[in-house]
Amino acid sequence: MFHHIKELQYNAKPTKPDPVYAKKLQEVLGGQYGEITVMMQYLFQGWNCRGDQKYRDMLLDIGTEEIAHVEMLANMIAQLLDGAPAKEQDAAAQDPVIESVLGGMNPQHMIVSGLGAKPDDSAGYPWNARYTIGSGNLLADFRANLNAESQGRLQVVRLYESTTDPGVRDMLSFLIARDTMHQNQWMAAIEELEQTQKALVPSTFPQENEKQEVSYSFMNFSKGEESAQGRWANGPSYDGQGTFEYVATPEAMGQVPILNPAPAYIHGTPVNGSIPPDTGTSAFDKS
Prior knowledge:
By secondary structure, the protein is mostly helical. The chain has helices at residues 19-25, 27-30, 35-47, 53-80, 86-93, 96-101, 108-111, 138-161, 166-196, and strands at 217-219, 235-236, 243-247. The protein folds into two domains: 19-196, Ferritin (Up-down Bundle), CATH 1.20.1260.10; 207-247, no CATH class. β2 and β3 (243-247) form a beta hairpin. α1 (19-25) runs antiparallel to α4, α3 (35-47) runs antiparallel to α4 (53-80) and α4 runs antiparallel to α9. Mn(2+) 2 binds at residue 66. Its cofactor is Mn(2+); Ca(2+).
């Protein structure tokens, strides 16, 4: 059960309207690594968590906080759109750089949402639930969460650098700080899980069932051998179960694939000019 209070988690008030910047800010609201994504990702991971209750509680803590971040960004975008008639878009487009990159404000901010935020990215693409990851394996999910927070913090920092509005920067500085905490949080949780299970996901699969002769082989499939200098090519493997080896010229290990001719009802290309025998039935005739 959720309760809403009127106060925002942190201030979200720009110094002045900026409809073009509002379009940019949509990315960290409804983009692939935006706040809606991490909100939904953490909440569903928490609701579906079947493991230790401390992880469930932690996921619901951070997921609920992300709802607050969505609210902050939505309010900030709405205020950046205050008093933004169509002429603002035309004025912004007079700058050839802005025109080529942004083309002025997002017209849907006026036409569709009535000067309000939308669950879209900065290009107007709607937020998609396929951005979220929730596998039921906490180690796999927490690594995905670390990536989401890393990409999200990077994008917010870039947005911070692209505005001089003190109010916007103040809110973004708060979000950046929370992303600092969240990256550290996921790294701590990942380290804790790795101490109680193998570093590989899933840790429950018997390794003898995999083709172990290639389990720790780094294969050189591009021109040059600079990759041989990496930690991944020499020495003990990260999971402690093997030794990395560098394969400079990997060889094909499989067969030459030769497919059987398609039956007549497919009407494919005849092999060597021959026509496959007509079975008298098609796939649709079979029950």
